[in-house]
Specification:
14 strands, Chloramphenicol Acetyltransferase, 2 domains, single chain, globular, six-stranded mixed sheet, alpha+beta
Length: about 450
């Protein structure tokens, strides 16, 4: 075993435990989605899923609660990945949204499910994997999705068992571990309080209701073509921003427009941030693992004329906070998981905490994904992912780029945000992003 490996059982770290608690308080599973065509028989999918379980350690793990309330990853049973075969209804995205929020029980193995939805045309389909967020993040799950599709479509590769990966917090830079890390977190907490006070409280979106209860998720999507995305990237470089900053700005301008009064708004955006490149040992995306954290940026949004100022502000602020250690310390700045035992009372206390967070919007960008192997007997149009927002998040938007095409998924909860309002936000979001290169 190398110093980058770990064995089961092992305790969930702060981030993994946070995702488990969040899923109990408000659905937090996520789904990775491939839209394609070509032969994808059920038997081949089952064989590819079984092979994935034999090669990736966390695909045979379960989560258990010990007597002291600590959550652990343990080796689970030999249950195969459940594969659902369905026919597309009026909107297959809504079918996937409903599958996404079905919870995983304590002790359940595996913490991943699969679904193939057959479309109306002769060979078109959607293939998706649903994950418990404690075992994967958007990029590592997307790479597994592509790997499974390759194996199911005739790509011949040698069997390769991956090593178990360590807890994220165990491979933080030395100054963010142990007592030094605690002292850094304490100083950072005070700094962030002063920053929050100076900025002021973000504006509350009047059309949003902070309610818990049964989850009724919704999902809408749009795409940006390769040529248009290239133009956005070039303009972003000129503006000292990034494509991610442009996507974030388009999202915030869409929210500001939905207020309906035309006034400037102070809006927060939480960015899911991949920390792999900042760890003391290299952790790649070749096997599922949760190595993401959250960084919040608050910007003054004042209509289309502010687009690139907002995009630049997001890009620079996120980079500044990442270098400062905000992403590494996010989970340490929260009350420890031990404060929320895996009981109804503990989950209620956790739900009360997140229900008091400032209202925000979320953006998670998986970046450019690898392409399917040329030997595969299928073709893919789009690869993306989706996650339902919690009660303090108006919309959870995700972005993925496959073969130069960008897919944006806008995820919402119908009890909290009415569909007509969401459709207005989605239309403005797409309009702002598609047109930003010529602003």
């Amino acid at each position: 075993m190398t110093n980058q490996e770990t064995h089961l059982p092992r305790p969930l770290d702060r981030g993994e435990a946070f995702f488990w608690l969040l899923d109990r308080a408000s659905a937090n599973n996520f789904v990775v989605i491939a839209e394609g065509e070509g032969p994808l028989p059920e038997a081949a999918l089952k064989a590819a899923l079984a092979r994935a379980q034999s090669e990736h350690p966390l695909l045979t793990a379960c989560i258990t609660a010990h007597d002291d309330g600590q959550l652990y990853f343990e080796q689970g049973t030999d249950n195969p990945v459940a594969l659902t075969i369905a026919t597309a209804e009026a909107d297959w995205r809504m079918q996937l949204a409903q599958l996404m929020v079905q919870p995983f029980a304590l002790g359940e193995t595996p913490l991943m499910r699969a679904c193939r939805i057959d479309l109306g045309d002769a060979s078109g389909w959607v293939f998706a994997l649903v994950f418990h967020h404690s075992i994967a993040d958007g990029r590592s799950a997307s790479q597994l999705l592509l790997e499974i599709l390759e194996h199911a479509s005739g790509v011949d590769r040698p069997q390769r068992t991956r090593s178990s990966q360590p807890q994220m917090h165990a491979v933080f830079p030395p100054h963010l571990q142990g007592q030094a890390g605690e002292e850094h977190a304490s100083e950072l907490k005070q700094t962030k309080r002063l920053e929050f006070k100076a900025l002021g409280k973000p504006d509350e979106f009047p059309a949003f209701s902070r309610i818990f209860g049964p989850t009724d998720p919704g999902l809408v999507s749009f795409h940006v073509a390769t040529e248009q995305l290239t133009q956005i990237a070039e303009r972003a470089r000129q503006e000292k921003s990034s494509v991610n900053g442009a996507v974030g700005a388009a999202q915030l301008l869409a929210l500001q427009a939905a207020f309906g009064d035309g006034a400037p708004k102070l809006l927060s955006q939480v960015h899911a941030t991949d920390l792999r490149d900042t760890l003391v040992h290299p952790i790649d995306h070749s096997t599922p693992g949760a190595y993401v954290s959250m960084i919040t940026s608050t910007q003054l949004v004042d209509g289309p004329a502010s687009f690139w100022a907002v995009a630049r502000g997001l890009t620079q602020d996120i980079r500044r906070q990442l270098q400062r250690g905000d992403g590494h310390q996010f989970f340490r700045l929260l009350p420890p998981p031990e404060n929320f035992p895996p009981t109804p009372e503990g989950i209620t206390a956790f739900a009360d905490m997140i229900g008091k967070w400032p209202l925000s919007n979320m953006l998670s960008n998986a970046g450019r994904l690898p392409e399917l192997h040329k030997a595969a007997k299928i073709s893919l149009r789009h690869v993306s992912f989706a996650l339902c927002p919690n009660p303090s998040v108006v919309v959870f938007c995700t972005a993925s780029t496959y073969q130069g095409r960008l897919t944006v998924n806008i995820n919402y909860e119908k009890h909290r945000l009415a569909e007509p309002v969401l459709r207005q936000i989605a239309a403005t979001f797409e309009q702002q992003l598609q047109g930003c290169a010529t602003l």
